[in-house]
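I have been asked to look over a protein record a colleague put together. What it holds is a sequence and that sequence's fold in C-alpha cell form. Please read both lines and tell me whether the C-alpha cells look consistent with the sequence. I do not need a full report, just your reasoning and any doubts. This is what I was given:
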Amino acid sequence: MNDIQLQFRGYLNTPLLWEEGEIEGIKQFELTEKENLVLNRNVATNVRLGRRIEEFVSEELHQNKNIEVLLENHQIQQKKQTIGEIDCILKQNGQPVHLEIMYKFYLYDESVGDSPIEHWIGTNRTDSFFKKINKLKNKQFPILFNENMLPTLERLQISPKDISQRVLFKAQLFIPFQKKNVQFGPFNEACLQGFYIRLHELKQLKDCKFYKPTKMNNLVAIQTQVEWMNYPNFLEKIIPIIESRGAPLCWIKYPNGVLEKFFVVWWD
C-alpha cells in the first residue's frame, strides 16, 4: 500500500473527538464508514496537510450512497473580497447539512485554562480546542446566513432555515510523558495516540529506536518496516526543528518491541 492510501486509511481510522451529544451547541456529523474504503482519486502532492484531509473527506462523502455533495470549498465574496469559506454543503438522506471539517493534533496541558476542554492545545501553544470550537460557533457557522451566501443557497434550492450544521471533527490526542491521570472530559479517549516530551527528558528513552515521518504521514498508523534511528542520530535530526520552535511528531520503538507515537515539544 502506498503512502497516499496509508494516509487515507489513517484518516478513516482516526476517531471522532467526541461522539455523542454536543459541545458548545455543536454536534458531530454521523457518517457510517464503508468497510475497505480506498482512495479512488488522484490527489495533489504539493498541498498542506489540511487540504489533503479535505480531499480525503470529500472522497469518503462521494462514496457514500446516502450522501449528495452539493458544494465544496466555497468562498463567499463581498465586493470582490473573500469574507469566509464553506467547507461543504451536502444532503444526507435528503436532509441539507452544512459541514465543517476539522482534523487536529492536541496536547494535554492542565496549566492552560480551567476546564478539561480548555487543557487541550496545539503544539505551538497558540492553537487550542477551546479557541477552535468558539471560532466555529461564532464565525464559521454564522457565515452560512450572510447575505452574500443567499444567492448560492437559492441556486441550490435550499432555505437556510432547513439546513443542519455539523462538524466532522477528528483528532489525535497526546498526554505528558509518564502522566497517567488525565481528564478527557467529553472527549473520546480512543483518540489518545501517545505522549509528548520535552527535549531535556528524551535521555530517559536513549535505549529506544526512533523514526520521524513526513508531516503528511502524521496521519499514518505506525509502520514497522522503516529505517529506525538510534538515540544520537535521532537527536541530530530533531534538534534543529526544536531550535526553530517546531514540534515534530515521531515514532518510538521500545526495547520490548512496543510502538508509540509522540511529540517532542520546544516549550518547558
